[in-house]
Amino acid sequence: MDIDLNADLGEGYGPWRMGEDEALLDLVSSANVACGFHAGDPLIMERTVRAALARGVDVGAHVGFPDRQGFGRRVMQIDTAELAAMVTYQLGALAGIARAAGHRMTHMSFHGALGNMAAADAALAAPLLRAVAAFDPSLIVSSSSSRAIEKAAAAASAAGGLRVATTFLADRAIDDEGLLVPRKLPGAVIHEPAAVLARVRLLLAEGQVITHSGRRLALKPHSILVHGDTPGAVALARAVRQAVEQAGGRVLPISRQAALCSEPGKETPGKTLGSPRDERPT
Fold first, then answer.
1. What three-state secondary structure class fits 86?
2. pLDDT per position as a tens digit, 156-203
3. Could you tell me if 254 and 222 are in contact, meaning their C-beta atoms sit under 8 angstroms apart?
4. Most confident by average pLDDT, 15-19, 128-132, 246-250, 272-276
5. How far is it, in rounded angstroms, from Cα 238 to Cα 155?
6. Do residues 63 and 56 touch, judged by C-beta distance below 8 A?
7. Would you state the pLDDT for residue 209?
8. Angle between helices 42-55 and 80-101 (to 10 degrees)
9. pLDDT digits 0-9 by tens, 35-94
10. What does pTM read for this prediction?
11. Residue 92 bridge partners (DSSP)
């Protein structure tokens, strides 16, 4: 079993740092790098990319709303065409920095409120995924379970659709459809490390997750995410990695996993690998 371990990194600004990026880069296989909108700046992006390259860690663009003060977790009403252009802008920023550093951008993901909105709204996901495909159809879209993202990815490119890898957010509750529960609800963010690890172990052993309502949902993601801004993130990432290895798995970036290595058009377009769409909650 190959599974990616990733974290959202580069989320400081200027002299302000958030999280222990260097320590996390020693544990993860992929880094989702903030692109200057919800957090980050050019120098932090460059440092993060170079640190990832030195450790053989993949980098991807973590694309969000232009909302540093709210850390990208506030809903913003922005014209769809403008929002799609913002996606392209952020992809271009990280791709350029990665190229200059001798690295390459392998994937992208949507951050915070933007990610939640796109995951729940096919009409919004479609133009955003078209923007990703227009920029680089070889990018892998890393997303929490979402039929809207899956459908949009399938239709995003005439070349056969974008590849989508489902990511399990270890410390975030999901509903019975696999969507993230809004942070304002009790229990939406799981703070207790033991509870997070119990979720990971159940996922690895049985391919299931307990939803916010207490039901079991089948899920077989290709990536597990640990939030870099969470207190104790380094210890948690280490414990998650150990859990994967103890279960006989191998931590490997999504770009190197066999099921995702073929070019778009040579596999089922837009397939969300590990999506629960064929397994209904019980």
1. helix
2. 876 578 999 999 998 999 999 888 898 889 998 998 999 999 999 999
3. yes
4. 128-132
5. 37
6. no
7. 94
8. 50
9. 999 999 999 999 999 999 999 999 999 999 999 999 999 999 999 999 999 999 999 999
10. 0.89
11. none
Q: What are phi and psi of 56, to 5 degrees?
A: 70, 30
Tell the residue number behind the tokens 């227009």, with chain if given: 134
Token look-up 């299931």 returns 208
Please count the structural domains in the chain. Answer: 1
Give the CATH number of the domain where residue 178 resides: 3.20.20.370
Report how far residue 53's alpha carbon sits from residue 63's, in angstroms, rounded to the nearest whole number: 20
Q: Does 272 have pLDDT greater than 50?
A: no
Would you list the DSSP string of 241-272? HHHHHHTT-EE--GGGSGGG-SPTTSS-TT-E
Range of the domain at 110: 2-278
Spell out where 98-197 has E strands: 105-110, 140-143, 163-169
Tell me how far apart the alpha carbons of residues 60 and 1 are, in angstroms, rounded to a whole number.
22
Write the DSSP symbol of residue 179: P
Pull the structure tokens for residue 258: 């066999």
**Quick check: 264 and 271 in contact, CB under 8 A?**
no
CB of 243 closer than 8 Å to CB of 197 = yes
